Amino acid sequence: MSIITRFDPWKSKLCTCPPKYTINPYTGCSHNCIYCYATAYIRRNKSVPKKNYLSRVISDLRKINPDLPIDMSLSSDPYPPEELQFNVTRRILEIILPIGFKVQITTKSNIYVRDIDLLSRFNAAVSETITTLDDDLARKLEINAPSPNQRLKSLAKLSDHKVPFSVRIDPIIPYINDDEEELRELVRTVYSLGAKHIVTSTYKAKPDNFRRLINTFPELENKFRKLYYTKKNVYQGYSYLPLNLRKRLLFPVVDEARKLGLTYATCREGLLDKRFFNSTSCDGTHLIPIRMPFKRRFETTLNKLIE
Fold it and tell me: Which of 88, 172, 256, 292 is the most exposed place for a label (fewest CB within 10 A)?
């Protein structure tokens, strides 16, 4: 397949995502987050629409299993600022949602409220990343992404339109956004707006994102190097924090979610006991509602949509 692919980037035993597809309408990502893992293989470039994306999507739709959800997107955000100009994500959603495919939007944007007419009518859910409630800190971490306050306002609109959503508190970075009470407050805040699921993860260092991290927080360089590069906790090219520290950082998030009755999970942590993982899916795709059945004979619909 050309643009819709099976999600299994690492073939990692630590990846707990259910079987699904992913589609990235853009190459590169203009949000420019310093902790981004994808820059190791897509480089740190502005978002550019994939070439011939429309014909490629249409071709791939004829080949995929409609029982599996499509996660949009997992390498580059589907709603970068450029989406307001190019409407690539909107155009793809106009094709795949009316056929009855199940779609999750994974983003740290707020532009999807423009498309709430589609998201509220079809089989769609949203997974929003919020790493902190501190707008100033977020500007350092996620340079060109909308502020946390803007994202929270967009979640409220999803709730008003009955679009289910989960929140990714990911990554938690030691010394940066790891304050226990602030993490619990973040969980309580998104719960009050209607979040149904929380997924969280600690920061894993790769050479390129680690370099950006210490350039942004040079006063913490020695501490970061001690945590990430003295214990040799390396797994498939990622330097992990020691297990006990990861548990300590993640616990406030999952514990607060548990208290509030939310489903919760950790991502690529290897923590599968109920203290850290209590959900049918880690990624929130279990929230996708079935508002319309899949149209097994969708060629006529497809032809009308692309006319």
Answer: 292
Most confident region among 4-8, 149-153, 233-237 by mean pLDDT: 149-153
Residue 144: pLDDT over 80: yes
Phi, psi of 256 (to 5 degrees): -70, -40
| Cβ proximity of 86 and 36 under 8 Å | no
Cβ pair 169, 200 in contact under 8 A:
yes
Query: Which is it for strands 165-172 and 70-72: parallel, antiparallel or unpaired?
Result: unpaired
Q: Which residue is listed with tokens 């509030």?
A: 260
* Residue 152 pLDDT class (50, 70, 90 cuts): very high
Q: Classify burial at 101, counting beta carbons within 10 Å of its beta carbon; exposed 0-12, middle 13-18, buried 19 or more.
A: buried
Instruction: Kindly tell me if the per-residue pLDDT of 307 is higher than 60.
Output: no
Confidence at residue 305, expressed as pLDDT on a 0 to 100 scale: 60
215-224, 236-245, 298-307, range with the lowest pLDDT: 298-307
Distance of alpha carbon 152 from alpha carbon 168, whole angstroms: 13
Q: Is 304 exposed, middle or buried (0-12, 13-18, 19+ CB in 10 A)?
A: exposed
